[in-house]
Amino acid sequence: MTAHRAGFPLQHPGPRSAERIVSVPTGVTVVRTELPPGARVAAELWRITESAGHRAACVELVHGSFGTLRYVHPAVGAERPAYFSETYEPAGPCFVLGGSATVGSREGSGFAHVHATWLDEHGRVRGGHLLPDTTVGAVPIEATMRLLHDVAYVSDTCPETAMPAFSPHPRWEAAATQAVAARIRPGEDLHTAVTDVAARAGFRSAVVRASLGSTVGARLRTGPGRIAEADWPATEFTSLTGTVADGEAVLTASLVDRNGDVHSGLVLPGQNPVAVTFELYVERADSGAISRDIDNTAEEAPA
User: Fold this and answer.
1) pTM of this structure
2) Phi and psi (nearest 5°) for 216?
3) Which residue range or ranges hold the PPC domain (predicted)?
């Protein structure tokens, strides 16, 4: 019997896959841009990715506002341990605090998995999993996109969880390993997975960013001697940022629980198993090796 509390792996309905971490090395180009008012967030991220000749991107979102905002957050499932809540659509306006996205394809069409946090019309910090018809509001949303040269991200229904999940697939052999795109399957500890992915790639030092997924509840350090625990069965990470050095990881996160409440803090090692899936981006710490295609108009806008 699975313990119904944070930190204990979930029991999923399908067969357990033997390969628990799928990782693909890749070259990277960084693009900083703005998503324009009225655009659908997911569709615009795919448009930028595809127009650059790529099939995958890992994205960080910040600032800006939502027009139409439709989202869900984690919930207890009826036929599986974790699922999604009902759909919410706040009246707005809602202003973006941060977010992450994985961009790829599903059933042959462009698709993006997007988590975000925002301030709602009441001034509350809220967060969730954005649905595809969510649009950009009057204030453009800033996006830092890591376009992956050698990876195709494909979303399929996972036999183990019976839920959709992105997995990275190699398009060809990477000319240079600047970063790794990885999928972490259920039950794997998030900290251990991060250090394993970095070690496999030969990165003695690395940075983690533009990553999202879910853990079983969550256990975070939120101050000296303070541990916060988010509710079982799942929380969705809207951001994961950190460093890896000589096999040790320091990870910080923002995440939303099954009540729609947002938490942030340091991720505790060994206490945060993946709930359904985690899409992880790990980049070699030598940032000078990354090609950077900067949107100069956005960079030079007055402060």
Assistant:
1) 0.93
2) -80, 100
3) 25-169, 174-303
